Amino acid sequence: MVITVLKRSKGLISNVIDMTKFDISLFTGPLAEEAKKIIPQVFKSIQKAKVIYKKEIKNPPNEISPAPKEFWEEIIKKCESLGIGLIGFAPVEEDLIFKKDYVGGIELLYTNAIVLGMEMDFKAINQAPEPQAGLESLRIYAELGTATNSLTDFIQSKGYRAIACHPLGGPILYPAMAVKAKLGQIGRQGLLITKKFGPRQRLSMISINAEPLPDTNIQEIDISSYCEKCRRCLSSCPVKAIYDTPIINKNGTTTRIDSDKCFNYFYKTVGCSVCIETCPFHRIGYKVLYYRQI
Ligand code: SF4
Ligand code: SF4
């Protein structure tokens, strides 16, 4: 039997976020109490995504299911009820699948993608690089992970096949997939910047064997011309991890960050987020483009 609905990596290398390296001793008092609830939720949601994948891959389908526009409308409505603020659709790009998904163990994906984003709290991110901002990142990893699993359950209950991809780690380059799904553009600091939340969101994905994908009519946005002039993230990164000139790789992807430098600081601060906090698209929002003075 020839299976055509599954997509696999062409060898893209990923950098793993190792949660065991987070310095959680930074969380003290009420933050420690919150962390005690949030961290197990992160692991629980990762575990559930792994179970979904194992079940799916045991008996993969050999054809793509047709989906009417009413089905996609239901998905969009369900997202809203789960607190998922961003939803976009795009075919899964094999060039963007990682050789190894260290966190979820996912090796194969279905043909199409539902790309999801959840906003992080504005005030918490304003504390970056203090632990409040790091804890907010973890909270969204837990909430978006749980919501992604619930949406996957919902899709499966409608008779479609779906694989949940957790926001922490993940089998595919989420920001690039989000650009393909027309959710936003990549900023100088390598993060997705959207019209709704600026750089203040975490991303996840569901791969699904359904088509045709809906046309969500999301407006194109223009970030790159602003980033060309603005260097705030570059100068404010505490460990100078953001490259002045991004590296264009042979496979067509772009590397904007020295991930060794970034990850070391990221672990020490449990999530850093300075390059989110400092970005005008976080502080002021998309209206910065109407006032192009930097
Ligand atoms: S997360 Fe922090 S260390 Fe990493 S690039 Fe952004 S500002 Fe620099
Ligand atoms: S801080 Fe400035 S240069 Fe960096 S991503 Fe935001 S707009 Fe672009």
What's the number of extended β-strand segments? 12
* Class derived from helix and strand content: alpha+beta
Weakly predicted, low-confidence segments? none
**Bound ligands, each once:** iron/sulfur cluster
Total of helices? 10
Shape: globular
Which whole number gives the mean pLDDT?
A: 92
Strand content: 15-25%
From the alpha-carbon coordinates, what is the Rg to the nearest angstrom? Answer: 19 Å
N-end to C-end Cα span? 58 Å
Question: Order of strands across the widest beta sheet?
Answer: 3-5-9-6
List the helices and strands and how they pair.
Elements: E1 7-8, H1 29-58, E2 65-66, H2 69-81, E3 86-91, E4 108-109, E5 112-119, H3 122-125, H4 131-157, E6 162-165, H5 174-180, E7 184-186, E8 192-194, E9 201-208, E10 210-211, H6 224-229, H7 232-236, E11 242-248, E12 254-257, H8 259-268, H9 274-277, H10 280-283
Parallel strand pairs: 2-10
Antiparallel strand pairs: 1-4, 3-5, 5-9, 6-9, 7-8, 11-12
The structure holds iron/sulfur cluster (2 copies).
The site of one iron/sulfur cluster has 13 residues, from α6, α7 and α10.
Task: Name a few traits of the molecule.
single chain; 294 residues; alpha+beta; 4-stranded antiparallel sheet; two-stranded antiparallel ribbon; 12 strands; 37% helix; globular; binds iron/sulfur cluster
Q: Explain this structure to me?
A:
With 294 residues, the protein is an alpha+beta fold. The chain has one domain. The chain contains 10 helices and 12 strands. The strands form 5 sheets. The protein has a 4-stranded antiparallel β-sheet, sandwiched between helices. A two-stranded antiparallel ribbon has the order 1-4. A two-stranded parallel sheet has the order 2-10. The chain is globular, with a radius of gyration of 19 Å. The model has no long low-confidence stretch (mean pLDDT 92). The site of one iron/sulfur cluster (SF4) has 13 residues, from helix 6, helix 7 and helix 10.
